[in-house]
Amino acid sequence: MEIKHNSLTSIALQKFKKNFWGVFSFWTIVLIGVISICAYLIAPDSSKNANQMHLSIHSKSPGFKVKILTIPSNIKSDGNFFEKLLFGNENLDAEIPITSYHVKDNFLHYTEYASDSATGLQKQVAISNFPKNNYQDFIEERNFLFGTDKYGRDYLSRILVGSRISFFIGFVAVLISLVVGLLMGSSAGYYGGKVDAIIMWIINVTWSIPTLLLVIAITLALGKGFWQVFIAVGLTMWVEVARVVRGQIISTKELQYITAARALGYTDFRIITKHILPNIFGPLIVISAANFAAAILIESGLSFLGIGAQPPMASWGAMIKDHYNYIILGQPYLALIPGICIMLLVMAFMLMGNALRDALDVKS
User: Fold this and answer.
1) CATH architecture of 155-360
2) Residue 1 has pLDDT above 70, yes or no
């Protein structure tokens, strides 16, 4: 009779797979991650930061359609595929929303789109401006699935590109918090005494400062910008990691296998990294999932206050800030869509964290 010996990791993985909401949240996070990486490849507006403005069609409702005339600049962009994947296309062509057009005397005559039933300006452009005089390929009917924002930018594209900041800030912030938290927490828990007292004093002082206030102070010290926000959020989230690591090491360092490791002459660094930390990964995974969600909310709050990602960079929090007054102006979706995106991503991380906690609980 064959006896199967399952490791604790495989048992935890089997328990996690049985949790419907945990698995669903995991694949939701994976989907959002893929979308954020390939945002410029799937966004209708692949320009840098999806910042192609058409002021004449601002604040249009979802499903709005209009003809777009593209006048080529005959200047080629030098960016390669990876630059376009990471930063988008350098859009050098002029895009003009139009209502009608006709050709006369080798000129394309068109009427610009004008809102509120007004008559648009009538202009003309020489047919020779288009490659091989083929102007038909430069007129298309564009469908704005999520409508346009107050600057006439494609809102779906802004949502897709904005997912990058909300998604990747979780990774950067959690990585920074793990590095600092593991260093401080393991030192305090393993050595104790004065080392523990000093580190706990630093932890308590940092803990007593409101998180948002501390992030604002660090952001103002480092300056406004993309990476400054990532670093600021990460430097405020290490306290919880340090407290958990310290508590786990205090309860683990007196066990027999740690005493045996000391008797064999192993160094403190090897004991901590090889024998203690691998056995406390369970609580760290759970708290990291919670920190992911917290980092997304903090970044959204900072962007809403205007000290997060700076315009024209797309950010869900900044999009809420730009359009929250539209809630009472009859177009609440401009603020609700990014708000719902934030809610779904945060909820996915929280549900996955709860599923991981249940799966890693040895008592269940």
Assistant:
1) Orthogonal Bundle (1.10)
2) no
